[in-house]
Design a protein that fits this description.
The protein is mainly α and about 260 residues long. It contains 11 helices and no strands. It has one domain.
Length: about 260
């Protein structure tokens, strides 16, 4: 029970920090709404529905998955802030598992991403994106999986970064290419071979594809666009998640010991 309590306390701390950070709240809500409202609507108006594909729906599902995944990954930057403030050393000397500490950070950032999902879904309903009750209920566990997966990726990337400045410099180079390789704004089933290889190495791709798997499986009027099946995406996400957690935790603990 002490391990569970530690996880919940660390997660609660991160969630409270979000509620007090108004700048992050505004930025987290504004950017995905701009992507969907401006880019999705303009693509739909300009190109119609090529091959029966509703581009507004396509961009909506991509941005929803991308926002949740990226928000959780970027939110783990708080681990670097805790390191700079020596807070991480204080919790790492506590009598709890290192994995409990990392899971607490991951859970906290996953909870932080959930209000964004609610706002994006509400905006999608306003724009007329088909979202039945069945789709909404099915997306709840998928959003949680995507959030946890993104946070685990963030742990891996941030485990060896010394400070927030380095994190803010590295993350754009890690995230921006995945916007295009993950198929958020355009289908990626016919990429050149070298881009296809990079796309398969992009973790965000599987988060986006999994969410679309669920959405297009329930919406009967939609054209299917996912690349892999839901079980295949879940298997890949599970494998990547385990690798990110094990390697990221080991590297982060080692960096703390070397300080």
């Amino acid at each position: 029970m002490s391990e569970v309590s530690a996880v919940l306390i660390i997660a609660h701390r991160d969630f409270i920090k979000l509620l007090r950070d108004r700048t992050r709240l505004i930025a987290d809500f504004a950017f995905p709404l701009i992507f969907i409202g401006i880019l999705g609507s303009s693509l739909q108006a300009g190109f119609g529905s090529p091959g029966g594909l509703n581009l507004l729906t396509f961009v909506f599902t991509g941005v929803l998955a991308q926002t949740i995944w990226q928000s959780s990954a970027l939110g783990v930057i708080s681990m670097v802030a805790d390191r700079e403030q020596d807070f991480s050393q204080e919790i790492f000397v506590s009598p709890i598992s290192r994995y409990s500490i990392i899971f607490g950070k991951i859970l906290g950032e996953s909870l932080v991403a959930l209000p964004q999902a609610v706002a994006i879904i509400a905006f999608g309903l306003v724009l007329g994106v088909p979202l039945s009750l069945g789709v909404l209920l099915a997306l709840v566990p998928i959003i949680l999986i995507v959030a946890v997966f993104g946070a685990a990726f963030g742990v891996l990337i941030l485990s060896r970064l010394p400070n927030q400045r380095a994190a803010n410099q590295i993350f754009p180079f890690v995230m921006l290419p995945q916007f295009f390789l993950a198929g958020i704004f355009a289908p990626i089933d016919k990429l050149p071979w070298f881009l296809d290889i990079l796309s398969r190495l992009s973790p965000m791709r599987y988060a986006v594809d999994l969410l679309r798997d669920i959405y297009y499986a329930i919406e009967p009027d939609a054209v299917r666009v996912p690349i892999l099946s839901a079980p295949a995406n879940l298997a890949i996400i599970g494998s990547m998640f385990a690798a990110f957690i094990v390697v990221g935790t080991a590297l982060f603990v080692r960096s703390e010991r070397n300080r």
